[in-house]
């Protein structure tokens, strides 16, 4: 019992013991079950309300419908949480169920809440000195008693299993993040139905950022800003140290430009609450009676007016989704009320003459962080329908946050921007982005958020995002990486082992930067999150990344000598100069028809997979591909229905030509030669020699790709240790430096011919080895293969002019 009381008693909750308990159990199954169960509950409420409101209010638009349903649910949840926290009298909501006209009685309770709390959640009339637009819609709705009775009944014992007084804001945010993934649509008959949002489908789902990632980003932005406030004069022994004070901290402005349910803003706000509390305790709480007060049972807590002021001073957010904006506000308001009760709220009304909660309409705003009003200069407004204008939702940062932008921007920009690929971006938006952000080729949406963060971050400020780790090495992002390392100091780069957002199917890393002029001595801290712990990999000068040919965000370190890496690069041209690299066939949803274990007709071709490819060897595994693109695509579309087809047949000319085939999965390049023109699946890449007027033999490049030098280079530039299935991306293949032969030089010409002969021998030896059955014969052939491999390596060392010392380092450090 003592253990239970230490965690769940009112005093324990106020002192933070429950929050620490929840954090310690966050990865365990229980909290996931709470999230899932409560999500199902509020999704059911949305269905109930949507159907009834649509039926009883036939003039509502789809946007009014979504607003009305969301706002009604938010108000009910807010008041119910206030009851369990003893801020409101317990059972008030349930009392409204007595008799008829439940919604009219609820509206009267909502109005009383406005008088008490002042939050935008209950803003029904214009008031002097109050920003934001009042809600003139919901009080006039017609809602039947039955759905409201069903919802409110399930918020009380015995139908409700939740103790709202100890339900952390973070868990509620997790639930709402998933809830926001769907939207209400109206049929032509004005019937409501709930669907997944198109942008959510494109992104592959909704992903809640784990608390440990939020904490890291907040600590390395808000925490660093606070640390930078310590100013030391340079007057020698009597140096004067000025400690940052709350007045200076009140000037700090933190923004999340894609705030979702508000998880990053909650994290930043909590960090600032803790900092202020600790400051007042350190300086003597008796001096700050209006800022801090004692807690029953020991400890101190900030007063409600102080928590309100910190929120209004420091925390800002933008999201394109109006529902997300409302959820962020709700989460922040509930954070303000943590630790409050009816007595503290009443005393605030009595002594401070102000209502309990702030109006966040000027802090958390709805709009498209990436698209400004200049979008309409290129698009004729009259040609855009209402739905398109609503989707675009242009946002002017200079107008919406004028004082902040006049002073140079925000001190901190944080978040988890959407991972929408270029394929999921509307064509008109793409044209605007290319013009506005100077991005070309293939770009993903989060890249634009990085560029906007750098624009909106003031000089000396910090920005930090969690993004897919392909940004660190993919060739398509080279220019953006170069822009970052020339315009900012990269403070830290953190790679995460495994999927942090399992449904998204991507690996992630965190980039944290300070918008400050780069100095030659500045070093980046490289870290790795592995098995619940943050490990330090090492420190490296930022100028090292600047010197790499593709400016990859990787740690070279002592193991992979930077001098050797740069030497290899300087001696060659990127592989894409010589080759077109293509993916293989992707089966989509028709694998059972597309792939077969026997030949049906002349349209069937032998299909090769990654497991059949080794260095200098190509084996067929007995599978055929039924290569009829038009028929297969029709079948795929039929099976997928409204979902996007996943079938990719590729052009036949890709398969018919000779090519180098490389495995997609591996810790280094594994390549062989296709002489006859084979068909291959997505576990392989095919490199087709460009039809240039040049004398290169494709076998020359095969020798380079399979060499120890290229293995060393690849493992230095693309670090994938610890990955269960490390993947070799096309962009990395395209960037590999191939030694360029000067055919007018007899020595180099001779080296080219020598390589071709050695590779020919390797291909032949591997063919013999695959047929050999006697152990002695296999041993003899394997010795010949090893000797030939060493000859190829020696030739490659000579081509790249590597010294004995460099060769030794390469052979000692490559992963065998």
TrEMBL record:
Coiled coil spans: none
Biological process terms in GO annotation: DNA restriction-modification system; methylation
Superkingdom of source: Bacteria
Domain TaqI-like C-terminal specificity stretches: 606-737
Enzyme class, spelled out: transferase
Alphabetically ordered keywords of this record: DNA-binding, Methyltransferase, Restriction system, S-adenosyl-L-methionine, Transferase
Domain Type II methyltransferase M.TaqI-like: 313-500
SUPFAM superfamilies cross-referenced by the UniProt entry: S-adenosyl-L-methionine-dependent methyltransferases
GO molecular function: DNA binding; site-specific DNA-methyltransferase (adenine-specific) activity
InterPro entries linked: DNA_methylase_N6_adenine_CS, MethylTrfase_TaqI-like_dom, N4_N6_ade-DNA_methylase, N6_DNA_MeTrfase_TaqI_C, SAM-dependent_MTases_sf, TaqI_C
Catalysed reaction equations from the record: a 2'-deoxyadenosine in DNA + S-adenosyl-L-methionine = an N(6)-methyl-2'-deoxyadenosine in DNA + S-adenosyl-L-homocysteine + H(+)
EC assignment: 2.1.1.72
Alphabetical list of PANTHER family matching this protein: DNA METHYLTRANSFERASE A (PTHR33841:SF1), DNA METHYLTRANSFERASE YEEA-RELATED (PTHR33841)
Name this polypeptide is given: site-specific DNA-methyltransferase (adenine-specific)
Lineage: Bacteria, Pseudomonadati, Planctomycetota, Candidatus Brocadiia, Candidatus Brocadiales
């Amino acid at each position: 019992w003592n253990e239970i009381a230490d965690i769940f008693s009112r005093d324990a909750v106020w002192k933070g013991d429950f929050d620490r308990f929840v954090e310690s159990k966050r990865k365990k199954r229980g909290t996931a079950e709470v999230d899932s169960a409560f999500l199902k509950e509020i999704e059911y409420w949305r269905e109930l309300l949507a159907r009834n409101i649509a039926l009883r209010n036939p003039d509502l638009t789809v946007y009014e419908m979504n607003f009305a349903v969301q706002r009604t649910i938010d108000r009910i949840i807010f008041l119910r949480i206030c009851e369990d926290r003893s801020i409101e009298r317990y059972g008030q909501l349930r009392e409204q169920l007595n008799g008829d006209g439940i919604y009219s009685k609820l509206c009267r309770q909502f109005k009383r809440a406005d008088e008490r709390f002042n939050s935008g959640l209950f803003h029904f009339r214009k008031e002097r000195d109050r920003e934001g637009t009042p809600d003139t819609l919901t009080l006039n709705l017609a809602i039947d008693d039955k759905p409201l009775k069903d919802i409110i009944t399930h918020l009380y014992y015995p139908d409700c299993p939740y103790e709202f007084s100890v339900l952390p804001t973070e868990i509620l945010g997790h639930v709402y993040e998933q809830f926001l993934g769907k939207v209400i649509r109206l049929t032509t008959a004005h019937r409501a139905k709930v669907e997944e949002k198109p942008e959510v489908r494109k992104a592959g789902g909704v992903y809640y950022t784990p608390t440990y990632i939020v904490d890291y980003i907040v600590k390395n932005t808000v925490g660093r800003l606070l640390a930078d406030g310590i100013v030391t004069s340079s007057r020698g022994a009597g140096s004067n140290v000025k400690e940052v004070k709350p007045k200076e901290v009140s000037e700090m402005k933190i923004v999340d430009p894609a705030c979702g349910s508000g998880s990053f803003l909650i994290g930043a706000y909590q960090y600032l609450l803790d900092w202020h509390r600790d400051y007042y305790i350190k300086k003597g709480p008796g001096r700050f009676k209006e800022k801090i007060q004692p807690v029953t049972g020991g400890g101190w807590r900030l007063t409600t007016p102080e928590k309100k002021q910190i929120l209004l001073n420091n925390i800002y957010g933008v999201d394109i989704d109006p529902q997300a904006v409302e959820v962020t506000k709700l989460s922040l308001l509930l954070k303000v009320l943590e630790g409050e009760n009816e007595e503290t709220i009443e005393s605030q009304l009595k002594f401070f003459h102000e209502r309990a909660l702030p109006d966040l309409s000027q802090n958390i705003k709805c709009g498209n962080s990436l698209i400004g009003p200049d979008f309409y200069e290129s698009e004729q407004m009259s040609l855009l329908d209402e739905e398109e204008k609503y989707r675009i939702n242009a946002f002017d940062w200079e107008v919406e946050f004028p004082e902040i932008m006049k002073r140079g921007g925000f001190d901190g920009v944080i978040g988890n921007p959407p991972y929408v690929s270029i394929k999921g971006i509307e064509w008109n938006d793409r044209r605007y982005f290319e013009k506005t952000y100077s991005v070309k080729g293939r770009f993903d949406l989060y890249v634009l958020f990085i560029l906007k963060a750098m624009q909106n971050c003031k000089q000396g400020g910090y920005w930090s995002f969690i993004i897919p780790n392909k940004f660190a090495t993919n060739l398509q992002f080279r220019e953006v990486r170069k822009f970052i390392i020339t315009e900012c100091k990269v403070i830290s780069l953190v790679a995460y082992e495994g999927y942090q957002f399992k449904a998204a199917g991507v690996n992630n890393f965190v980039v944290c930067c300070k918008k400050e002029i780069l100095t030659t001595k500045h070093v980046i801290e490289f870290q790795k999150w592995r098995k619940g712990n943050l490990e330090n990999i090492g420190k490296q000068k930022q100028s090292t990344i600047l010197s790499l040919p593709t400016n990859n965000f990787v740690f070279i370190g002592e193991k992979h000598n930077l001098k050797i890496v740069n030497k290899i690069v300087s001696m060659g041209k990127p592989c894409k100069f010589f080759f077109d690299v293509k993916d293989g066939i992707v089966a989509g949803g028709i694998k059972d028809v597309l792939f077969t274990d026997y030949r049906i007709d002349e349209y069937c071709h032998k299909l090769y997979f990654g497991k059949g490819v080794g260095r200098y060897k190509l084996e067929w595994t007995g599978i055929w591909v039924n290569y009829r693109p038009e028929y297969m695509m029709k079948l795929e579309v039929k099976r997928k229905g409204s979902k996007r087809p996943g079938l990719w047949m590729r052009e036949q000319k890709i398969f018919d030509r000779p090519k180098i085939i490389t495995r997609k999965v591996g810790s280094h390049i594994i390549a062989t030669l296709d002489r006859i023109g084979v068909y291959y699946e997505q576990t392989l890449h095919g490199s087709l020699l460009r039809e240039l007027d040049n004398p290169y033999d494709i076998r020359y490049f095969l020798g380079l790709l399979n060499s120890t030098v290229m293995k060393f280079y690849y493992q230095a530039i693309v670090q994938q240790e610890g990955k269960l299935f490390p993947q070799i991306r096309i962009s990395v293949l395209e960037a590999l430096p191939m030694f360029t032969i000067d055919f007018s030089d007899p020595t180099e010409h001779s080296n080219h011919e020598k390589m071709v002969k050695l590779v020919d021998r390797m291909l032949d030896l591997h063919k013999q080895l695959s047929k050999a059955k006697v152990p002695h014969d296999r041993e003899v052939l394997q010795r010949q293969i090893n000797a030939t491999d060493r000859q190829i390596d020696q030739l490659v060392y000579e081509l790249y002019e590597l010294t004995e010392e460099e060769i030794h380092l390469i052979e000692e450090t490559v992963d065998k």
